[in-house]
Amino acid sequence: MMQKAIQMSEGRTRVEMVVATIRQRIAGRSLTPGARLPSVRGLAATLKLSTSTVVDAYERLVAEGAILARPGSGFYVANQAAPFALAETGPKLDRAVDPFWISRQSLEAGEADLKPGCGWLPPSWLPGDGMRRGLRTLARADGPALADYGSPLGLPQLRQLISRRMGERGIEASPDQIMLADSGTQAIDLLCRFLLEPGDTVLVDDPCYFNFHALLRAHRAKIVSVPYTASGPDIELFAQVVADERPRLYITNSAIHNPTGAILSPVTAHRVLKLADQFDLTIIEDDIFADFEHTPAPRLAAFDGLDRVIHIGSFSKTLSASARCGFVVAKPEWIDGLTDLKIATSFGGGRLTAELVLNVLSDGSYRKHMETLRHRLSRAMSEVSAKLKGLGITPWLEPHAGMFLWCRLPDGIDAADVARAALEKRIVLAPGNAFSLSQSATNFMRFNVSQTLDPRVFEVLRDVLAWQGA
């Protein structure tokens, strides 16, 4: 294994190649804590290198804390190796493929790694020039904008802008009904703190965004699910689950559903809201993909008038994941309680980020950027869909907008096995059961079309599928 790794590595000294190979074996658990490394002479003979090269490599690893030198005995893997950058260590294949697996692999991936399973756009697809203009404007701002706490509700001018944008989607909400948050995820976290007690039941779609599962488990909620269809939740099963389980909350995407790309129909929305009223159910409508739509889809918050529905959004997907900014839209009495909770958990708002987001959104170039982005995603959707079909990977539906394709793998193929095999090739995929509470999506996988255009993705998928089906 070490011989092969060194032959494949170029642009490094021999010492660096030995160091990288041992790091990869430690990260991949083929060398476990306490394991004895080959002797200097033995490894040098195996790799056809000089003993001085191996000595230098071992000494460097000892200095990093990755291995230990025991005089008269040899070198051993340290029990607590010093942390390395993932780009240098190799993928962690031993972790269970659960909701955290996709997040950790995607967030910790190196720049050269491919991430078809992640949930965001490549940096080159985002409005870098607009962000730079906003930063330059912000650099000339007065002292309070750069140094002071923000108000708990958030920057008033940004909340006014969000209020106008909500009106374009049929949701009537004054700026006082809007509270800024650090992200869409923080918004849901605050709402769970505000509305749930440990042991409360929460209903989610099956499949749904995998981090809903992780967040709800952190709040010690009981999670139940209902199958999702091309027009929304299976309404008959939805009615049955709501009657039997009496959930406190239902968390969903109604516009561009994650991971399926489906859009809620008006008929289904009407029935969901009637059941929510009948069984005293509160709905959190996660709408972070709103700006990807070509034509606005039905919103539960618009039909409901923010009575039982809480609407959340974010700018992380369209502006920057580094400048985290989300928001909550709810009835006034709930915003008041949420504001107190925000003070208790994060004190003031992130004023600097809010000022930056306001500058970029107020720039006339943002709408042009989104128009270009929507067309670019449409082209990518068609291209990726066609190539996946050529491999026997079938989209569950052809989404009208957004970045995700929810796909069925060929019969008998386990998506988790495919994901682990692809990770060895530095490609991060999103296997279906991470999205499914019922674990009924074994041979499904979510693809982010903006991150799936590199030919290497399809080459690895072809090879892995051939091997899995053998």
Automatic annotation (TrEMBL):
Tell me which UniProt keywords the record has, alphabetically.
Answer: Aminotransferase, DNA-binding, Pyridoxal phosphate, Transcription, Transcription regulation, Transferase
Q: Where is the HTH gntR-type domain?
A: 12-80
Q: Which InterPro entries match?
A: Aminotransferase_I/II_large (IPR004839), HTH_trans_reg/aminotransferase (IPR051446), PyrdxlP-dep_Trfase (IPR015424), PyrdxlP-dep_Trfase_major (IPR015421), PyrdxlP-dep_Trfase_small (IPR015422), Tscrpt_reg_HTH_GntR (IPR000524), WH-like_DNA-bd_sf (IPR036388), WH_DNA-bd_sf (IPR036390)
Keyword Hydrolase included in the entry's annotation: no
The molecular function GO annotations come to: DNA binding; DNA-binding transcription factor activity; pyridoxal phosphate binding; transaminase activity
Which Gene3D superfamilies does the annotation name? Answer: Aspartate Aminotransferase, domain 1, Type I PLP-dependent aspartate aminotransferase-like (Major domain), Winged helix-like DNA-binding domain superfamily/Winged helix DNA-binding domain
Q: Which family does it belong to?
A: In the C-terminal section; belongs to the class-I pyridoxal-phosphate-dependent aminotransferase family.
Protein name, as recorded: Aminotransferase class I/II-fold pyridoxal phosphate-dependent enzyme
